[in-house]
Specification:
about 150 residues, alpha+beta, Immunoglobulin-like, about 25% strand
Length: about 150
């Protein structure tokens, strides 16, 4: 038994880790809030289904204060995440006003689709913007798929 435990510990220490090397790939992107409102952003892998999720969970950067940045990390590479998990090769990013989230029930937000903006972002979209997304949307920095247009 002792010999088996020693071998297991040795294997775990010697065998290279399977975790993703974030130094070689993008493991976070920046979201810049250029507005005067506090925002909440949430992600979805379900594109082209752009419906809101059943419950409001911890799916993004919770609160982004006016004129500030939020670093949005992934458990690994965002490229891998989008390629492997996002339907249609796009990550959907929903932006809400903090006031909307605090004032209304999630059922009401869903029913009225109280989204300030919805981004549908491919790897190419992220790369073209140097892995930075801004609100409000600025089309002079490159075209993106957004709603409302």
């Amino acid at each position: 038994m002792k010999n088996g435990i020693f071998k297991l510990i040795f294997i775990l220490l010697i065998v290279p880790s399977c975790s993703h090397d974030c130094d070689k790939d993008v493991c976070s992107f920046d979201f810049k809030n250029n507005s005067l409102s506090t925002l909440s952003i949430y992600f979805s892998n379900s594109y082209p289904d752009t419906g809101l999720f059943k419950t409001l969970g911890d799916l993004g950067c919770s609160l982004i204060k006016p004129n500030s940045n939020c670093e949005c990390p992934s458990r690994g590479s965002w490229k891998d995440h989008i390629n492997q998990l996002c339907k249609g090769g796009k990550l959907t990013l929903f932006v809400f006003s903090k006031d909307t989230i605090n004032k209304y029930t999630w059922e009401s937000v869903k029913a009225n689709y109280n989204v300030l903006i919805r981004y549908e972002l491919s790897i190419e979209d992220f790369q073209n913007r140097n892995w930075k997304v801004e609100y409000p949307y600025d089309s002079t920095k490159g075209k993106l798929s957004v709603w409302p247009k």
